[in-house]
Amino acid sequence: MSAPAYLTQHQNRFLEELMDWLRIPSVSADAAFHGDVLRAADFLKEKLEAAGAANVELCATAGNPIVYGEYFVGEDKPTVLVYGHYDVQPADPYELWTSPPFEPVIKDEQIYARGACDDKGQVYMHVKALEVMRAQGEVPCNLKFMVEGEEEIGSNNLAIFVKENKEKLKADVILISDTGILANDVPSIEVGLRGLSYHEVEVTGPNRDLHSGLYGGAVLNPINALCRMIASLHDENYHITIPGFYDQVATLGEAERAELAQAPFSESGFEQSIGLPAAVGEAGYTTPERTSIRPTLDVNGIWGGYIGEGAKTVIPSKAFAKISMRLVPNQTSEQITALFQQHFTSIAPAGVTVQVRPHHGGEPVLTPTDSVAYRAAARALETTFGKKPVPTRGGGSIPIVAMFKSELGLDTVLLGFGLDSDAIHSPNEHFGVFNFLKGIETIPEFYKEYAAS
Amino acid sequence: MSAPAYLTQHQNRFLEELMDWLRIPSVSADAAFHGDVLRAADFLKEKLEAAGAANVELCATAGNPIVYGEYFVGEDKPTVLVYGHYDVQPADPYELWTSPPFEPVIKDEQIYARGACDDKGQVYMHVKALEVMRAQGEVPCNLKFMVEGEEEIGSNNLAIFVKENKEKLKADVILISDTGILANDVPSIEVGLRGLSYHEVEVTGPNRDLHSGLYGGAVLNPINALCRMIASLHDENYHITIPGFYDQVATLGEAERAELAQAPFSESGFEQSIGLPAAVGEAGYTTPERTSIRPTLDVNGIWGGYIGEGAKTVIPSKAFAKISMRLVPNQTSEQITALFQQHFTSIAPAGVTVQVRPHHGGEPVLTPTDSVAYRAAARALETTFGKKPVPTRGGGSIPIVAMFKSELGLDTVLLGFGLDSDAIHSPNEHFGVFNFLKGIETIPEFYKEYAAS
Description:
Two copies of one chain form a homodimer. Chain A is of the alpha+beta class. Chain A has helices at 3-22, 34-51, 120-136, 156-164, 222-231, 254-260, 267-273, 287-290, 333-346, 372-385, 400-408, 433-452, and strands at residues 54-59, 66-71, 79-85, 105-107, 110-112, 142-148, 173-176, 188-193, 195-204, 210-211, 296-305, 314-315, 318-327, 353-362, 365-366, 390-393, 412-414, 430-432. The longest helix of chain A is centred in the N-terminal third of the chain and has 20 residues, at 3-22. Helix content of chain A is 33%, strand content 22%. Chain A has a six-stranded mixed sheet, sandwiched between helices. The first copy, chain A, has a four-stranded antiparallel sheet with strand order 11-13-9-14. Strand 11 of chain A pairs antiparallel with strand 11 of chain B, so a sheet runs across the interface.
């Protein structure tokens, strides 16, 4: 039976298995879910073994285990290292989900659940692609699977694991499905990713909460101070004001910008899809450019004072924010993290003190479009979509891509099947059944093309 | 036996009774405590009856009941209406209390508990003063007690109660102990209070939380927008920038400012008492002026995005803040509330929408220093402290003082015994045993002086 036929015959089971995995709330950012994270790793180990992978193991780390497995076909075949992650983002705010985040349902041909697209659904395409290939009796490449449980919190232990297991991880290329395509009728391959510099800041005023009547006017309110500091990080054109922030930014020539502009994009469609009155960003750049080739600074969370029911007239002792920057070539997270810490501390007004605590960082990457692997991926997508894919630059970050290059000397192919509208990191995350199945169909084509080149 | 002797003999019981009351967490701002609020009202009713008050009742309102009671001595005597409140501020953040907020303890001659000073401790001085006077066989004035349970959330139902019970509340003057003295060796009487305009603001960007990588740069982050809007409410001199905000502010002449400057004040002592690097405020005014004769704008709470453990790379759909302004004569809360709503809505940048929801307001007041009641209070303090009290203007708000004047035509005497350092509205609120007992000793002196004038 042909691969598509086998896939059609078994697709319901494939979906059931994925939904079983999605029921496990493997939230890595919150220690309360630690047991679930481990259960999610066990689940994957079992399914990799069932699909025929060998030497499947849970590799212990200082944090969550890395699920590793292999499928060897021959010395003469190229080896592909498949990377993904089984941890998911926190699901809150829960009340905005139309169905519970960890009770997956299929509605309108979409699988709704936290992790449906990012990244359990896309990892599971690879597990099932192996099953399909074995059912066909043809696995064209040697495969190695490395699926971590800390991608959403910075992959620190993965970096250590990779450093310590270079021989085990020897391969010719890395394959990752953790990105997307432009549309289900517009296949594309991401060739660029932004880096990340993430910080928690703490502004301290008085040594205790104060009555805003008795003290108001004579004490700089740390919330007001924090707001003033954050506001000063952008100018009126939404340029970032941190000195030196743009120094390393690679500016694209008109030709490159024109090429990127080829990708179909509707400004009004973009605004409508997220209910925005207007898309707003850095002056002088288009919306696709603002989300790909330009760095950003966003407050991901802020809190301070009384946030309960009703009114409390308090001047709080402290105010906090989580602030992250997306980086582009040739910025480095180390350099931007240092610039941010130095600058944010320096702009603290008299009357408050400031602490900046960096979280994880990640490096921006550009992957080559002239490599054997990229061309194999392009041909695979053309086969399954009937259309040549366009190269795109994504706004997200997969910090380990740069780490794989530096530690293993390997390039990465980003063969992702999600859509921007999948609401990853948001309430009601979902993944198209079409996209899940198309991924399972396309991945074997990639191996075929790659082995043949 | 003399009044001081009786007080000395019974002071331990008086303290025990107060601590029993403080054990009831009568937090009016949080519906979760509604049952406790009612228990606190019952407790007071019982103690007023025990002290000898007549016609003690719980007057139902649309919200929490008002405890009312009377003590009648004769048509020929003046009538004093004693006002206070039995509700307390929320106690969070609980973790900053050195002992639990609703398990009162006496340490270093201080009673530690939420409400110890604001206002249960000061209300209870009046209950015990009645007991002491009756033990002496001399109550110089007719007394009416009106103690509400919604002062910390705006006293809306008290205003309705007063409108509907003008005959019942007929009196010659209003006596309130909900303020403080400058120091235990510097008796003072507050003659001015600031008003209040309190708002909750909501800034909405995209219709759902977004991935800060996929969307960052092309979407105005509502937290960044809120910070920019809040920052713009003050200029570099900490003047408030809302158009028309200062138009009605009564500016004091040099003579008046010089008189206020008489009150002993130590800038360094002020800074040290709250662990401030530096007291910061509106240019051109001293710290005591900034907290009394000048209006303010403070953010009392702010929240948005991910505030949990770890990192989440999200652009939230919404950001919120609670913003309040302290008002001075001749501002009105109605006018400032309208100005704030209009202005804050008008400064919303393109890309977000803004909602402003006013909470309660209150009017600033100045009470006369040449009235019979003020002079009686001054003589009473001079008798018990051995020192003439100084008139001061406080920064807090007791909105109902202006309401009593407009509805009942009555002036108020603010005979309070707290200290700024009592940490009301903060963790570790406390009230000096000295202050509690001195209040019980001074209140009968006030009635004696007032009846004699």
